[in-house]
Every structure is written in C-alpha cells, then in structure tokens.
C-alpha cells in the first residue's frame, strides 16, 4: 500500500464524518506522509498502521469514544496491505494474495477517485481565505494609515522642535554680534558703548554655546529617531525590533 492508496482508503473509512472534519483529517496525514518523504514512505506507513486503525482513532477522538488499539493486529495489516503475491496466486498465501489483489484493485479505484476529487476540489476554502485577507486589509488599512500619519506627525514635530532650538540659538549668537557692533558705534559715549559691547559679547557667547549644544543634541536625536522608525517598520516582518 502506498501513500495515495492509504489516504484514499482512509477517506473512504471516514465517510460518515462531516465533510470538513474528514478533509481536515485526511489532509493532516497527507502532510505527515509528505514530510516523511518518498524514501521514508514505507516506514511511515508501517508506523501508522492500517487505515482502519487510523480511521477508528480519528472517529474515537472526534466522537469522544474509547479507542481500543488491541483490536487492530499489525500482522493482519501487513498480510492485507504488505507485499502482494504474483498474479497467478501461487504460493503458501495464495488465498491471502487473491484477497489482497482484490483489495488492491479496490484501493486503486478509490485512490483514482480521491485524486480526481483532489484535482477538482472546490476553491471555496482558498477563495474564503483570499476574501478574508482582502477584508482584513480593507479594515486594517485605514487604521494603519491613521497610525502612520500620527507617527509621522509626531516625528515631524520633534524634528522641527530641535531644528527650532538650533535656529533660536543661532539667532541669539547673531543678535550678540549686532549688539556688539552697535556698541562700537556708541563708543562716542564711552560708558554706554562699553556696556552695549559687553552685552553683545555675552549674547554672542551664550548663543554660540547654545548653538553647539543644540547641534550636538540633533546629532544624537535624529539618528536615534531614524533607527527607531526602521525598527518599527521591520517589526511586523521579523517579530521583534532590530537593534
């Protein structure tokens, strides 16, 4: 018995269950055997046991009944689904071989039917998934756009705030220069001119210190904001912020 025959027989044995549950169960074992690979298919089928055993286990789990594994003899399974005898039915197990051949023909017929149904499977589940994704995008997009607008607005406000500090500090420094030049003009009245020049120099020094400080602050804040923005954008794809 190969993978296709096993799945076809399993689906037939689960015919009494609801369609959705039956397809989910068959798909589970199809994925299991696909993960095992063709080279390990025989061993994987041997570990699973007969389709009847698997089907009864699924039904017991679904209906909440007790599953008695002892009812399913592994030897019987190997005789029924193991190596087939020749077409002439010769050998010590000729009768068993004939029964196995009949089961093989039945299994192949069911397998062909199962393959045909799988190829012609309705697109309902896939279509519903696509529709669900579209609906999620439609609902989430305005919210995401609003959040992005708020984030960009806050970022622009912070950038403008620190840029304003630099401009204000530079303005104080420039005003100090202007006041100092005015004081030079007022030296015709020495006391007044000296006072004005002193105020101008003081303003220039304070503006220069403030300008240097605010520029350094911008050098620290702006790259940090950029790294935070990049990490925020990458979080949905990587599950965590990238440092």
Description:
- The chain folds into 2 domains: 3-121, no CATH class; 127-238.
- With 243 residues, it is mainly α.
- It is rod-shaped.
- Helix content is 80%, strand content 0%.
- It starts with a helix and ends in a 5-residue tail after the last helix.
- It contains 8 helices and no strands.
Provide the descriptors you would attach to this structure in a database record.
243 residues; 8 helices
Helix content: over 70%
Computed Rg: 40 Å
Q: Stretches where pLDDT falls below 50 for ≥5 residues?
A: 76-111, 117-124
According to DSSP, the number of beta strands is: 0
H-E order? HHHHHHHH
What number is the mean pLDDT? 75
What fraction of residues sit in β-strands? under 5%
Number of helices: 8
Secondary structural class: mainly alpha
- How far apart the termini lie comes to 53 Å
What gross morphology would you assign?
A: rod-shaped
What kind of sheet is the major sheet?
none
Number of domains: 2
Concise synopsis of the structure shown:
By secondary structure, this protein is mainly alpha-helical. Helices cover 80% and strands 0% of the residues.
